[in-house]
């Protein structure tokens, strides 16, 4: 049975370009993947990162939705502890009013940044007890018709019932998604260590809800596809350099591909990057078809979301085309 395939766009800023170029490329990519049959196009909230331009996540969601026709657009995710649930309900309620039945709201509990920046974002709420589970319930209520008699209402937003997803990179989020009966999206594109354990916990503890009767798992993965395995591996050196910057704390704009990573990393950095990329699909169509079929058989995922850090825009578009062709063949 074929499964939906979607896109996570981190609005990556590449070396030699500016965020304005990134946003133009995002529109072009969204229009491209819409034609290829992709289901969703999500942005992730990050702050104080030179290579990520999706800090104003809801603004970008509106921009993409306004430049496409039918693909679902949403967050993967909004870092809810950074915001008041009412403000999120109003923002996504506005988006859902402008673009009915096309908006998704994925929620995460991490700050999406470093601790110093998180303090600037959250202000006096930084030291408050963690209220993520309660805030998810508040947000659900604001977006429902059940809140119509409340003294505090989300206008617009109330009654839009924007679909909510729980995002995770650990097992804690799996318990929450299961107990609330919400779909679960796992960040296996950068935190694969707990992936299998987390989705097993989610499925075993899932409680049906008014919005979801059976567990629904989406895995986000890195994909670099090209005509040959060798070309894909070369293109993927941009991704590996990006992750190397995370490991070393020396973040840079997305760098052009190079011929040999051994010239720039040491053994410890290589091991750390490869661990983070243990759920990544890099290669030509034949290799990726076999790997993706095996991945589906092992994980039984319901949907797959792709992020592709590729320096050249045309090569990135082509990678998403090849991936769509593969998914249609499985």
TrEMBL record:
<protein>
    <submittedName>
        <fullName>LLM class flavin-dependent oxidoreductase</fullName>
    </submittedName>
</protein>
<feature type="domain" description="Luciferase-like">
    <location>
        <begin position="17"/>
        <end position="243"/>
    </location>
</feature>
<comment type="similarity">
    <text>To bacterial alkanal monooxygenase alpha and beta chains.</text>
</comment>
<dbReference type="Pfam" id="PF00296">
    <property type="entry name" value="Bac_luciferase"/>
</dbReference>
<dbReference type="InterPro" id="IPR011251">
    <property type="entry name" value="Luciferase-like_dom"/>
</dbReference>
<dbReference type="InterPro" id="IPR050766">
    <property type="entry name" value="Bact_Lucif_Oxidored"/>
</dbReference>
<dbReference type="InterPro" id="IPR036661">
    <property type="entry name" value="Luciferase-like_sf"/>
</dbReference>
<dbReference type="InterPro" id="IPR019949">
    <property type="entry name" value="CmoO-like"/>
</dbReference>
């Amino acid at each position: 049975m074929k499964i939906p395939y979607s896109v996570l766009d981190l609005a990556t800023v590449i070396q030699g370009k500016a965020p304005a170029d990134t946003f133009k490329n995002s529109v072009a990519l969204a229009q491209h993947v819409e034609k290829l049959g992709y289901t969703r196009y999500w942005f992730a909230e990050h702050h104080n990162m030179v290579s990520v331009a999706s800090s104003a996540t809801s603004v970008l969601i509106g921009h993409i939705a306004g430049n496409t026709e039918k693909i679902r657009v949403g967050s993967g995710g909004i870092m809810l502890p950074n915001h008041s649930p009412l403000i999120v309900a109003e923002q996504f309620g506005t988006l859902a009013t402008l673009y009915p039945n096309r908006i998704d709201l994925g929620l995460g509990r991490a700050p999406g940044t470093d601790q110093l920046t998180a303090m600037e974002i959250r202000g006096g709420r930084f030291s408050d007890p963690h209220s993520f589970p309660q805030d998810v319930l508040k947000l659900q209520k604001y977006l429902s018709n059940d809140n119509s008699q409340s003294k505090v209402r989300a206008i617009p937003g109330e009654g839009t019932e924007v679909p909510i997803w729980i995002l995770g990179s650990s097992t804690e989020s799996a318990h929450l998604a299961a107990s609330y009966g919400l779909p679960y999206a796992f960040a296996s594109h950068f935190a694969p260590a707990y992936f299998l354990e987390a989705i097993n916990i989610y499925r075993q503890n899932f409680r049906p809800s008014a919005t979801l009767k059976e567990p629904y798992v989406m895995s986000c993965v890195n994909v670099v596809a090209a005509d040959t395995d060798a070309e894909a591996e070369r293109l993927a050196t941009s991704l590996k350099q990006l992750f190397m910057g995370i490991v070393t704390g020396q973040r840079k704009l997305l760098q052009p591909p190079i011929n040999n990573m051994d010239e720039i990393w040491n053994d410890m950095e290589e091991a750390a990057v490869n661990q983070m990329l243990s759920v990544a699909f890099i290669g030509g169509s034949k290799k990726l078809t076999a790997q993706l079929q095996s991945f589906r058989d092992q994980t039984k995922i319901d949907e797959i979301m792709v992020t592709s850090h590729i320096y050249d825009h045309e090569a990135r578009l082509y990678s998403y085309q090849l991936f769509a062709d593969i998914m249609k063949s499985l």
